[in-house]
Design goal:
This protein is of the alpha/beta class and 275 residues long. The protein is built from 11 helices and 8 strands. Strands 1, 2, 3, 4, 5, 6, 7 and 8 form an 8-stranded mixed β-sheet that branches.
Length: 275
Amino acid sequence: MSTETIKETVREKYGAAAMRVVKGEGSACCGATASISACCNSQDPITSNLYDELQKSELPDSAVLASLGCGNPTALAELKAGETVLDLGSGGGIDVLLSARRVGPTGKAYGLDMTDEMLALANDNKRKAGVENVEFLKGEIENIPLPDNSVDVIISNCVINLSADKDRVLAEAFRVLKPGGRFAVSDVVVRGEVPAGLRRNVELWVGCIAGALEESDYKDKLACAGFTLIDVEPTRIYRAADAREFLAAEGIDADAIAPEVDGRFMSAFIRAVKP
């Protein structure tokens, strides 16, 4: 599948996800393509229970329903008052709005998304939340529309794995960060080898993605981009039992593949620093 095909597929399906929320049809469908994944539900082990009730109470319901992430980067990034934050692939805006409250009126929170429907939903959520220090930008995470050395912290929530050019994404993140700036994202990564024939099927379940990097590859790519102090901290390790219902629907025997995939996929908080 070509880079452009991947990009257009992601744009189409996340646009549809936003429209589901706007139409009041419940939580967004998290599949990167219709054939890649079924819609997430409240029991999805990837996207459920990421935000506490206090955080959710501060936000419009539509921001919470449009959250398709695999972590809560705003809770882990240690944001400080006055900082400028950029969320790569901001979707309905939940992490941008939470970040804006953490950095306060002297700070700024940007959200970057390529999907018109998500941007419209995010701006509506901004209005409902009454948050002023937020700006949503249209663009691609491979070509960030901000100047060099302009951001203190980059966050992202299970989006970088969707890019077909992760090296470019990380190079752009490095470019826009100020010296000493922090890269603090949630993403799904693979730990160890997974047989090629199984990896595709299991990835269809894990976070509705098709491009999770192996842990060491992620670290290597960050280092090649220029980052230092690189750390990958698991936040959720997925067991074969978590995928049992999905695998059964795909005609896969979860018990048969458990020894090969159990504990190999995880949501992680990935930290790095621009020197």
